[in-house]
């Protein structure tokens, strides 16, 4: 029998380490009949209370909700089920009062967030996927393997447009916005479709929402920059051994206990109000000061292979091969190396770790100093192979100018004879680039990230190579037919 609470099976804390000696005893099991009328009445009462909390007793509609809820309590007699229908009639009268034409419309979309690796064993996550689940590839596989009948139903509803697979990663991103349980939200939806005092609510889809917004898109407020998750500081560093294993590093068993440096700091003679950090397919800038509460919250930020602090004509870059937590405050550059919290994993990161970081002073801007290329060199060092002394040098691909990075080369998903290459502009400027290859390419086509070819966009093949045009940070994916 599985015995896992919402926050696992730890003792004394929300994220306590699992207690291997914790035992549970089953004293009684009951068969019960679900009383839908009572559940419906409870939902109506809860909705009325929420309206009072949101609108306030001083607002007319809020006062009406409070009055209705009080009357329902007075009418309900738990010993007399016939009284429930009278209370329900009061709630129905309240929710039947409709809005005026000026009220907003809210598009409701079902959403569920489940961590693939949570505070319980994987077996519990698999069981939970049979009840509610998020469209990460790992959870697709679990449902397909353990609940094949349910998986077939999911495919059916995907085709009907009632179930929308979102995301292309193996496990869910930790930036998803969670919502309430799907069935609970749907049960309440019919009460607030068009109720006076509340926005209209309709079940919708992302396509429907954004199609309606398109006409007024120029008038909408937009957010520029990152949406920083303040409670995720430290997650960039913890469980480093998982990252090391994925990268092929050797992690030796823990053999003795000592305190070592958990971060490295480099005070540099550089003054700049902003530092630059690498992100996926580009980079962004963050302030080096703590002027506001938002700045203060970013005492540690995430980045990929490098961070750079530059002033006019000079700068310093901090490179690494497996660490993601950075802090650049004023003129001090810091890289978080290790953390070892005791909850929920009491043995997190205990042991010997191997990683590399480097400090790189440079003249001019980080773009002109080839900081991006140097970070790739650090993460993907040259491999020595045996060859004949008279062998000619050979390279499958080359790209010019260096601001365009050839990030990915893979075989196409639809079979042999086709390669997929992915490139991106890394400096933040528009550029025309040339992709040169020594492979016998017959055709080149633009495609999307799912490798769906765009028949209207053949890539131009010239004697010098394949000519490509990039906007700042643009990602270009090509199919090369050999």
TrEMBL record:
<dbReference type="GO" id="GO:0006013">
    <property type="term" value="P:mannose metabolic process"/>
</dbReference>
<dbReference type="InterPro" id="IPR011330">
    <property type="entry name" value="Glyco_hydro/deAcase_b/a-brl"/>
</dbReference>
<dbReference type="GO" id="GO:0009313">
    <property type="term" value="P:oligosaccharide catabolic process"/>
</dbReference>
<dbReference type="GO" id="GO:0030246">
    <property type="term" value="F:carbohydrate binding"/>
</dbReference>
<dbReference type="Pfam" id="PF07748">
    <property type="entry name" value="Glyco_hydro_38C"/>
</dbReference>
<protein>
    <recommendedName>
        <fullName>alpha-mannosidase</fullName>
        <ecNumber>3.2.1.24</ecNumber>
    </recommendedName>
</protein>
<feature type="domain" description="Glycoside hydrolase family 38 N-terminal">
    <location>
        <begin position="136"/>
        <end position="184"/>
    </location>
</feature>
<dbReference type="InterPro" id="IPR011013">
    <property type="entry name" value="Gal_mutarotase_sf_dom"/>
</dbReference>
<dbReference type="Pfam" id="PF01074">
    <property type="entry name" value="Glyco_hydro_38N"/>
</dbReference>
<dbReference type="InterPro" id="IPR041147">
    <property type="entry name" value="GH38_C"/>
</dbReference>
<feature type="domain" description="Glycosyl hydrolase family 38 C-terminal">
    <location>
        <begin position="263"/>
        <end position="346"/>
    </location>
</feature>
<dbReference type="InterPro" id="IPR011682">
    <property type="entry name" value="Glyco_hydro_38_C"/>
</dbReference>
<dbReference type="GO" id="GO:0004559">
    <property type="term" value="F:alpha-mannosidase activity"/>
</dbReference>
<feature type="domain" description="Glycosyl hydrolases family 38 C-terminal">
    <location>
        <begin position="404"/>
        <end position="478"/>
    </location>
</feature>
<dbReference type="InterPro" id="IPR027291">
    <property type="entry name" value="Glyco_hydro_38_N_sf"/>
</dbReference>
<dbReference type="InterPro" id="IPR000602">
    <property type="entry name" value="Glyco_hydro_38_N"/>
</dbReference>
<dbReference type="Pfam" id="PF17677">
    <property type="entry name" value="Glyco_hydro38C2"/>
</dbReference>
